[in-house]
Specification:
Length: 227
């Protein structure tokens, strides 16, 4: 059973999401928050498997709420799936930096939302290669020093691991990475896991940030990632 907490300042939106989640026999809603501060408090109280987090909320926005949840060692197993109105919202990058495991636009189809919850709750990241690459390339076109708490750079990585990280940053999944580098899918998965450990990333989403922040993936003119 996937235990879900919903955080959105719009009552009708929360109610619609709650009905959708509860319609799935493998999911249950354990709490609903109307602002970011309440989301953090309810997450600590109920320890859900996943928080569906709106970005723009009063008192405490979804980005800071995500950061507090990710920084709490007692909530290490809690995943955050952030919601935005548009997939070009630059705040998405800040949410990924803060520890979110993926994002969705609010007008996504019901089946896609349920599938996204399952994906993130299972420990995977939800990053759509096209929109994610364009978005991160645009926002990180001028790389800056990451704030405190963000994973470090790839200095400790081997040449092969740097290649894998570059492909992760471009939005490739493990199977695609394996095919590109002539590896088995299991070997590609092992490389990704080791890279996360070396750079201190929570999940694949933060590896994308590391790849861009470190310059391994260089945004090209027009918003596409460098190849």
């Amino acid at each position: 059973m996937i235990r879900v907490l919903l955080a959105d300042d719009q009552t009708l939106v929360r109610a619609a999401f709650a009905m959708l989640v509860e319609s799935d026999r493998d999911m249950e809603v354990v709490g609903q928050a109307g602002n970011g501060l309440e989301a953090v408090e309810l997450t600590r109280a109920h320890r859900p498997g996943l928080v569906v987090m709106d970005i723009r909320m009063p008192e405490l926005d979804g980005i800071e709420a995500t950061r507090r949840i990710a920084a709490d060692e007692h909530l290490a197993g809690v995943k955050v799936l952030v919601l935005t109105t548009y997939d070009t919202d630059e705040h998405i990058v800040d949410a990924l930096r803060a520890g979110a495991s993926g994002f969705l636009v609010k007008d996504t189809r019901p089946a896609e939302l349920l599938a996204a919850i399952r994906t993130v709750a299972a420990g995977e990241s939800l990053l759509s290669p096209g929109p994610t690459a364009r978005l991160i390339a645009r926002v990180l076109s001028s790389p800056r020093t990451p704030p405190a708490g963000v994973p470090g750079g790839p200095d400790r990585l081997s040449e092969r691991e740097r290649q894998v990280l570059c492909l992760v940053g471009r939005g490739l999944n493990n199977a695609e990475i394996a095919e590109t580098l002539g590896l088995s899918p299991l070997t590609a998965k092992t490389h990704v896991s080791r890279i996360m450990g070396k750079v201190g990333a929570r999940d694949r989403a933060q590896l994308v940030i590391v790849a861009y922040e470190s310059g391994l993936v260089v945004p090209a003119a027009g918003g596409a990632d460098g190849r």
